[in-house]
Specification:
214 residues; alpha/beta; Phosphatidylinositol Transfer Protein Sec14p; 2 domains; 11 helices; 4 strands; 54% helix; CRAL-TRIO_dom_sf; phosphatidylinositol bisphosphate binding; CRAL/TRIO_N_dom_sf; CRAL-TRIO_dom
């Protein structure tokens, strides 16, 4: 039995969804039904949670073909990148260490445009003791939790501030070209709306890495 979406947020939120994304109750219902039919007819292996489907639709402003393409890419990445999407126990010692260090910090208060702000401390971890894959795994775990807890993020979006303070050659070497490519592809196909990527305290010698993300 297909799930249906039950609106539970403020009128202001849905007015913003219409203004920013062209979302209406009718378009939302019809688009979700179309994605559900497509997934069933093509045996697409995906999470059938109706809210997740809406998140994907919002990232493309309800372009159905782009949404379907994004869903396929996202779940292909999840299947292939087991180092990020399996063994996601936050109580694992390596995850606890990264949580204590604070490599991915969502701010409690939204910005003036109601966007979720996250501080990504790219050099907070030690390359000697922490793998970049574990850092990315934790980032995605926290992001998934944010999306689960706060639907407004799917409309207003995310501002990501990358704090490069104290970055070393060891940190830069962890980001090999293959890993950078996988990271960018994952970010582009995630069911969220990144609005701003801002890099602060960046040393000159790592600008070649940042150019990939800009």
């Amino acid at each position: 039995m297909r799930q249906i979406y039950v609106p539970s947020l403020s009128e202001e939120f849905y007015a913003s969804a219409e203004q920013l994304l062209g979302e209406t109750a009718v378009k939302r219902t019809e688009s979700v039904a179309e994605v559900q039919r497509w997934a069933e007819q093509n045996n697409v292996r995906m999470h059938r949670d109706v809210r997740i489907i809406i998140y994907f639709l919002r990232t493309t402003k309800y372009d159905l073909e782009k949404t379907k393409n994004k869903i396929q890419k996202y779940y292909t990445i999840r299947s292939a990148r087991t180092e990020w999407f399996q063994n996601r126990d936050p109580f694992l010692p390596e995850m606890q260490e990264l949580l204590d260090i604070g490599v991915f910090l969502p701010l409690r208060h939204k910005d003036t445009q109601n966007r979720q702000v996250v501080i990504i401390r790219t050099a907070a971890h030690s390359p000697k003791y922490h793998t970049q894959d574990n850092v990315f795994k934790l980032d995605k775990m926290v992001l998934d939790l944010l999306l689960h807890l706060d639907e407004t993020i799917s409309v207003y979006g995310i501002v990501a501030i990358f704090d490069m303070k104290n970055v070393t050659l060891g940190h830069a070497l962890q980001l090999n070209p293959s890993l950078i490519k996988r990271t960018v592809e994952s970010w582009e196909n995630y069911p969220c709306r990144p609005q701003v990527l801002e890099f602060v305290n960046a040393p000159v010698h790592v600008n070649f890495v940042l150019n990939v993300f800009r």
